[in-house]
Prior knowledge:
single chain; alpha+beta; Flavocytochrome B2, Chain A, domain 1; Sulfite Oxidase, Chain A, domain 2; Immunoglobulin-like; five-stranded mixed beta sheet; 11 helices; globular; binds ligand MTE; binds molybdenum atom
Amino acid sequence: xxxxxxxxxxxxxxxxxxxxxxxxIIHNNGVYDITxxxxxxxxxxxxxxxxxxxxxPFWSVFTIHQTPxxxxxxxxxxxxxxxxxxxxxxxxxxxxAEERDRDALKxxxxxxxxxxxxxxxxxxxxxxxxxxxxxLVDAPITPTEKFFVxxxxxxxxxxxxTYRLAVQGPGIPDGVALSLEDLKKLPKKxxxxxxxxxxxxxxDMHDVKPTKGLQWSQGAISTATWGGVLLRDVLKxxxxxxxxxxxxxxxxxxxAISHVQFHGTEGYGASIPFHxxxxxxxxxxxxxxxxxxxxxxxxGAPIRVVVPGYVAARSVKWVDRITLSDEESWSHWQRKDxxxxxxxxxxxxxxxxxxxxxxxxxxxxSAVLLPAKGQNVTLTEQGEMVCKGYAVSGGGREVVxxxxxxxxxxxxxxxxxxxxxxDARPGRQWAWSHWDAxxxxxxxxxxxxxxxxxxxVDDSYNSQPEKMEGIWNMRGVLSTAWHRVTVKVAG
Length: 491
Ligand code: MTE
Ligand code: MO
């Protein structure tokens, strides 16, 4: 086969603009002239960050590019290959260039805040860190600095004085732009809400059969008391004719609106059904406070959406645009992610994604926080095993029972439930319950390994499946099988 032209890294690095002879990038070992692509790049000018460099480190951040379609598209622009270094000097030059590329990447994260060292970091750029079990146990409200962080992109830099929230769509003919002051003039509302990532407990599913995604243990979940304004009130303020709280049906002209789309400043996006947004019982919040303090950068300052009872992926941080629409958000994370598949769908294709329903309300979930896996457990004087954990369901459904076992699920003890939100109304149980149980065990288990198991039941009598096998999906979402923790009993 004819050899493709080869280019030295030093030459490639000069191709950073049209004027400099075109915009070139490197992917793996290929060289691509993307000059004509820049104007049509869906992500806009951001692609220029990779001009004259390898795009691969950027794709490790902007992971939505890691698809066969993107690679095929890029291949059309290939002009050659990277020339291997000829000697030690060139190799050293290349290494220095790669170092500069990594620095450029870190520069994207210069607005990421300092974080609590106790958070368990699964990925640093962007930050994906779970709450340590010992911060969740006994704490109905998670301390803000221990609240799990799930960022898909760098934390954006937002000037609160010029910040505007655009609200647009049918029913809001002219569209409006609200300042923080405008928003804070609306009635303030606080709601205690548990946010749980769709991938919480993915590791438990992965251990049964490999999945794709961050290997979260049981800490991609946290609870805060959020302060802000109701989305419903904001829509009204923007001119949308909100039905009074006493009506349950929507006005006829709302047929043009079935979804509310949220756009985050840094590029993330998602949507929720309109009925959830507009319902007086939905409690969807635009929050500017978390646990009584101004919302921190990691959790969406100055404004984030909080969608109680829904998967946390819809609680869009750094929200700057709200659009009423007859369609779901076109964001990658609404259409190409956060969907469940059959255990036999090993490689979901475009069509699978189109046909699958977006995850919104979450199923019932529970986990053991104490004792920890592998811990050496001392029994109480009465010969009981002390266990603690959390349980939560979606859609405002209340957890009505948690069963805990210290013999792998043969016999069960009913746990005591402590709901985090004691003032929650029926059908609006938006926060988890902590549970604890003292399981009477036989003294013969001393010195042996035992398996602690927990499972929860919600007020619709939905319960968790026993095994992961039947709910396994390649993305490892909705990992809700009985939580099992093996410990050793002190002798
Ligand atoms: N909003 C924006 N703008 N960007 C994001 O990356 N991640 C979503 C959601 N909202 C995300 C976002 C996901 S998947 C989760 S689980 C939650 O935010 C995490 O919220 P937290 O970081 O406050 O815990
Ligand atoms: Mo998530």
